[in-house]
Amino acid sequence: MSKTSGKYNVTDPRKISYELFTLTYGSFVMQLIKDYEDVDEVNKQLDTIGYNMGNRMIEDFLARNPHISRCSDFRETAEVLSKQAFKMFLGIQPQVTNWNNSFDEFSLIIDPNPLTEFVEFPDHGKFEKLNYSQIICGAIRGALEMVQLKVECNLKTDQNKGDSTYTEIRIKFVEIIQDAIPVGED
Amino acid sequence: MDSENVKPSCLDKSIPKQRGEINLSTYAFLIAEMVIYSNKQSNDITDFKSRMAEFGRFIGVRLLDLTYYRDRNNKREVKFLEQMNFIKKYVWKSIYGKEADKLERDYSDPLIYYIMEKDPIINKFLPNDRLNFSCAYLNAGIIEAILNESNFPCKTDIIHSDGWVYYTIKFDKSVVSK
Fold first, then answer.
1. How many residue pairs bridge chain A and chain B with CB atoms within 8 Å of each other?
2. CATH fold label, B24-171
3. Were both Cys, which of A6, A100, A134, B14 would link to A105 (CB 3.0–4.6 Å)?
4. Is A134 on the interface with B (CB under 8 A)?
5. CA of A50 to nearest chain B CA: how many angstroms apart?
6. Which residues are CB-neighbours of B130 under 8 A, at least 6 positions away?
7. Is residue B113 classed as helix, strand or coil in its secondary structure?
8. Where are the domains of chain B?
């Protein structure tokens, strides 16, 4: 990564209230729960939706940050992901941590998580298995796949699970995709 | 208190005075997915509209108190005209960072009012030939929820005209005669 100033490095000034975003996402998840009723299915849907978003977000990201070039290793990818991508899209910088020994797996700690602001789950435990922030995992997977990085991305803890107050996402490098396959709508 | 209740409830936290902001692209991507999803799930355009408005209603109900609390010091409006003004000014300002453009009444029907907005942000990435799939239905849902919640029963719809979006508010008779 080179210089951080210059004409093309201005981050997008167009902003909207993040509460609107949080509430909108909440309404979406609610609708999914109403439509599918099954929590596992909702998780799957959220992942797919995130994946579709990620596919498009990577282009927006690279177009607005033309100074970012190919990452030399997975550690650099992690840095770019947390310090640039998350910063640009969600205005936060999650902590990169818990690397494994071979440096192909790490965790992102998202605290505070803008998606889970105002979110509270009923006590009856029906939504214990709901991965509320799964959409972020999907988006990471979708975005990295477009730059030929295949990763596994899972929500390790989320605010509705146990007594966790932060969101942890575990990202594992799988392979470099050799031939990029065109991605369809679905 | 048992161990399950140790986690602080979101009601115990204070509402942040300052509002955060988020990149419009992120929001646009999310809305795009919501439009695709709603379209896939619905049989026709009416169904689609009501699904989008349903999202808006969910948001509107929650925004109402938040905006009262934050921008109006909990002062509430008791007249429907002022309530519409409140939406135009404060609610729109708090979510989109700018006021809606105009507030007008219909000249023939005393029950109908319009909140008008030129090029709403939410439609920014919507091609002109796809106005059927206008994301502004979500805004209409927000307006409807806020008015209904504050006891001014009404139905909302939208009309597109030349870059303008008219949020049509048709009040129940009881509201206007008050």
1. 119
2. Muramoyl-pentapeptide Carboxypeptidase; domain 2 (3.30.1380)
3. A100
4. no
5. 9
6. none
7. strand
8. 24-171
**What are the strands of the beta sheet with B154-161, ordered from one edge?**
B102-105, B112-118, B164-171, B154-161
pLDDT in tens, A97-132: 999 998 899 999 998 888 888 788 877 778 888 889
- Is B33 close to A53, i.e. CB distance below 8 A? yes
Which residue(s) pair with B155 in the sheet? B170
Residues A66, A67, A69, A72, CA torsion sign? negative
Determine the Cα–Cα distance for residues B73 and A93; give it in Å rounded to an integer: 33
Per-residue pLDDT of A61-81, as tens digits, reads: 999 888 888 888 899 999 999
Model confidence at B178, pLDDT cuts 50, 70, 90, reads: low
Domains within chain A, CATH numbers bracketed: 18-176 (3.30.1380.20)
Q: Which residue of A has its CA nearest to B11?
A: A118
Q: Report how far residue B47's alpha carbon sits from residue B34's, in angstroms, rounded to the nearest whole number.
A: 14
pLDDT tens profile A157-168: 877 666 677 889
Tally the residues of chain A: 186
**Alpha-carbon gap, residue A93 to A73, rounded angstroms:** 20
Is there a contact between B113 and B169 (Cβ–Cβ < 8 Å)? yes
Give the ipTM: 0.88
